[in-house]
């Protein structure tokens, strides 16, 4: 296979045939380089990590399940180092091309997987989503993508980042294929008695967008209301929950671009950072691997997180989850943007990318903290670039969410065709 997009790791064109029969027979998929493939080292996006690891003895459980369903592995894709970034830029292996927004980043950390699917090199691809690594590349590259309910899909044979947030996700160019892969991985079909009947809209999430981005998503929000009825407009973080000890005088900074959701991002960053440092701090300190400056800066900060900050973040997380569970029952969908705008340009200033990442986490943290599933739908466009719209559902409602996405996007496609 010719990798015209720089999506695959060096030497990553390994293939594994799937079963002779199965629902995914005839489909090829790529695997992010945090999933074990038998006989190959799982590199985690970093040469110093890879050089110290042995080849995997078995496929990751989710990979084996897809093979058993007839799908074929077509290579291993680039990830940001240690999956700890949302940009999709790897200083060792390069930046996979974003064929839907040339000259712009693909998003990370599942960058190569998104690039390979968007560019048509594979039918679908496995990635992971801890802080947005399916939803963000899906939005930037014009793909359907699912971050599933936490712990719904086995992570055996998958390198962890922050285990209370880590999920196995996937991308596809079509909603029906995203759904079909879900039926395989979830071992079932959607419960028709639990199909969505109510729409919620997160006002503080849409406040993260500029006027043009809101305008690009507005027609699709209106169509959701046509399908599910008049939306109930809610605020995800009305109490501005945050880790107060991160700020002078215990007050979170006013951030109109991110609204109160910056507080949820604070909670997420503290808990994620502590889990990452607990898992890898000793190794990082001992080996001192070569790491890109932005990721090294995050790791250095993670080392400073205090027990008091973690305790406060855990308490605030519990309060948020309790509130969201009341707001988001079965048969309801919560609409929010997948990203605060289109993909930044590849040569964007580091400070600009850092500010953009903060806005991303403000949007993605709700699903991470709650463990709820979220799908990104490639519905909006701005300046000729994709912009995703997200739908969250109650924890465990993954198949119903996928079924709705397929049905709704099929209707959207028919409406678009009818205009010609």
From TrEMBL:
SUPFAM superfamilies per record: Amidase signature (AS) enzymes (SSF75304)
Keywords annotated in UniProt: Hydrolase
Amidase domain mapped to chain residues: 18-186, 303-402
Superkingdom as given in the UniProt entry: Bacteria
Coiled coil: none
Gene Ontology molecular functions: amidase activity
PROSITE patterns: AMIDASES
E.C. code: 3.5.1.4
Gene3D superfamilies: Amidase signature (AS) domain (3.90.1300.10)
InterPro entries: Amidase_CS, Amidase_dom, AS_sf
NCBIfam families per the UniProt record, alphabetical: PRK08310.1 (NF006169)
Protein name (database record): Amidase
